[in-house]
Write a structure and sequence with these properties.
Elements (H helix, E strand, L loop, with lengths): L2 H4 L6 H6 L30 E2 L2 E2 L3 E3 L5 E4 L4 E4 L7 H23 L6
Antiparallel strand pairs: 1-2, 3-4, 4-5
Bound molecules: zinc ion (ZN).
Zinc ion binds next to loops.
């Protein structure tokens, strides 16, 4: 994946400040697309699959814990994109836990975060 494909149009300064960039600003992406993991845009109305193919409007946002919808051109917290509410709760808590850990590492002087 080249650099141009990673840059999204949507910008959320508050998300960048609070949760930071995915992969700490380094390039690279998770191996599965969000749709393959059950994520769904919370605003767009569409079936999860069409003739056995996933709708690929969602992609991993540049912000930690967010998913970007190419149709809405907006970054949504990933928990909002999970129709399964029990998984949504876990995703939310994972994001909060990750941010807390990053803050603790930062305070302890770990410069790698
Ligand atoms: Zn959407």
């Amino acid at each position: 994946m080249n650099k141009e494909e990673i840059i999204k149009e949507s910008k959320n300064k508050r998300a960048k400040k609070l949760v930071g960039l995915r992969n700490y600003g380094k390039h690279g992406q998770p191996f599965d697309f969000p749709c393959e993991l059950g994520y769904h845009c919370p605003v767009c109305k569409y079936p999860l699959t069409i003739k056995g193919n996933y709708d690929e409007r969602l992609d991993w946002s540049e912000y930690w814990g967010f998913i970007w919808c190419s149709v809405c051109n907006k970054d949504y917290p990933s928990a909002l994109c999970m129709p399964d509410k029990d998984r949504a709760i876990d995703i939310y808590l994972d994001c909060v836990e990750e941010v807390i850990l990053r803050i603790k590492k930062k305070k302890s002087g770990n410069k790698t975060i």
